[in-house]
Predict the structure.
Amino acid sequence: MKIAIYRKEHFNAAHRLHNPEWPADKNEEIFGKCNNPNYHGHNYDLVVKLAGPIDPETGYVYDMKRLKNVIKENVTSKFDHKNLNLDVNEFKKLNPTAENIAVVIWNILREKIEIKYDLTVRLYETERNFVEFSGD
Amino acid sequence: MKIAIYRKEHFNAAHRLHNPEWPADKNEEIFGKCNNPNYHGHNYDLVVKLAGPIDPETGYVYDMKRLKNVIKENVTSKFDHKNLNLDVNEFKKLNPTAENIAVVIWNILREKIEIKYDLTVRLYETERNFVEFSGD
Amino acid sequence: MKIAIYRKEHFNAAHRLHNPEWPADKNEEIFGKCNNPNYHGHNYDLVVKLAGPIDPETGYVYDMKRLKNVIKENVTSKFDHKNLNLDVNEFKKLNPTAENIAVVIWNILREKIEIKYDLTVRLYETERNFVEFSGD
Amino acid sequence: MKIAIYRKEHFNAAHRLHNPEWPADKNEEIFGKCNNPNYHGHNYDLVVKLAGPIDPETGYVYDMKRLKNVIKENVTSKFDHKNLNLDVNEFKKLNPTAENIAVVIWNILREKIEIKYDLTVRLYETERNFVEFSGD
Amino acid sequence: MKIAIYRKEHFNAAHRLHNPEWPADKNEEIFGKCNNPNYHGHNYDLVVKLAGPIDPETGYVYDMKRLKNVIKENVTSKFDHKNLNLDVNEFKKLNPTAENIAVVIWNILREKIEIKYDLTVRLYETERNFVEFSGD
Amino acid sequence: MKIAIYRKEHFNAAHRLHNPEWPADKNEEIFGKCNNPNYHGHNYDLVVKLAGPIDPETGYVYDMKRLKNVIKENVTSKFDHKNLNLDVNEFKKLNPTAENIAVVIWNILREKIEIKYDLTVRLYETERNFVEFSGD
């Protein structure tokens, strides 16, 4: 028997969408105003989902305080109030689209969360644009 | 590897729930105040989900601006500020319940979105009543 | 000493913006898609604010259950799942803009709420368009 | 062909997390401030999902008014404005974590909803901590 | 020139509405299910508003981090995961209605926030029931 | 008789809080992580409020479509997907705190909105930190 638990966190960051192998006009055409060389930014909302059995002694799947701390130590503290392109190693050579940010976060957390728990990451770039990745 | 992207749009419309093959008292009994002959209305929120691989050149599954335009041209522009029963062809003979509206939107979008992308439509009639259809 | 209390209710209704003294093209120009002759609709959110002293025996300014019932009996039950233009007497000759709906609701409630309480009505037509009236 | 429908309800309750087989210091260590012997409380949001075929006569998967009543009669009326530990039989010997509350609600509803409908229960303890159970 | 700043915090607490000078049946009649002797609870949202001039050196009215800390040290840390009736001194003899909680919080903060700033406290007991106090 | 109307818009931007007349350590002490030299960013929500009489011919205080366009042409188009410090003239020498951004927006709109309408600007930097300015 499996039950899913969800924890919502957030971080505020600057970013720019850009492919360095393309000329300026193609970057402008594909990424539009997201290609602004001086960056823009977002309040990102992050929802982390773990699925597993309920521990009969605690009634928990996974301690929410522990999950909150795992996310803060490994993700939020590195991304919050940062420029994703310039300040975060994972995006030195990777375009920080919502899709790529979600995959990077999933990979970071997958190493910290025991494999017996299924892991899904949902990332809201805005209230109207969001993505979800489960590692499949 | 698949990742899901979501785009949220909305439209405001009038509708009435009614089965023309039933007598008035049965329509009243089954549909209650939703059967009001003069119509009532809603602010519908529509969330469209596509799942597919990330394009390594763009970092996108599907360009959100393109998805937004596909939804606006094929759904929102036809449904927004309309009377679903009277103004929208698909509901001339189909009861515009949230379930049927979601299936109609899914069918419209399925023709416009390449088949390699999984497609799911979620429709909020109110904050408390909503439906989701994936074509299965 | 005054403190304000707020109660949020909602109703779903159809309406059409139209001035019968204008020709069709002027109605179209001024009201745009809101002039659709077959109506459209909204999920209206209504927030009623009363301000007055705290009753020392109850700790209440005004019993929320009583306020909820006053709103339901006098406003919601008459507006919900209705066509404002056709089904609600107050709009037989009054254009049901958000502004006019708020003033109508304020006038209805002002007669039911003792004058010692200040009264304000806020009406959300959508999340992005809303109005507020205090009777001043 | 299956489509999912969702109904959101809520209840306000007090609870305390505690394992009577553990000493006080272990309860304090594991459950932290949630172990407060005088209880604390939450506004719980409950989203019930049913999946099944659309009835061609009504256009409904399941009448939302009926679903709302099933939830109110069997869940909300028993949990709302209650102390889960003291007032609700199911938690006399079961720790009322969000996980366990969701499973209890799922079991209650599974008996009331015909088996042909898939059933999922999502429970928000706060906006940032929530769980979901599908009976698997 | 004055500008208002707002900071939103929250706390989760149990409470019971009760007037010890009334017989049980009157408490039941006036407070209904809120009078449950075993308590119930809420996720309270608290919005604190300060109004004052902008400091030209910082561009701030009041440092948000400092405001957040003032609220946490003086309000949230004393109310969160507590039983308001049993664990919080201010409600030993005062009925913890939303109105009274807001006045208590306003009085606590008024002593900690320099008098040159106007102070308003808004407290959401639920999304639909809330109160606001400005000390007037 | 006056009634208030509100229009909500949004923009996504990067910014950095910094006082060039202070040494690095004082900037770090006062602005903390908001002083990151590579910028961070936000999804800003902007609510513009106008108060005035209802035009009896239209039932409007001010045409919402016109208000939406005034905001887009004069504010959103200049701030959205920009770096406030580098790309927006008003912040070349002014620290882009929420307070200062709100005053700048109010000044821009005050020139475009006839003086007979009272004008208030509310700006959400995050859901939990926001400011409001009325020109007083």
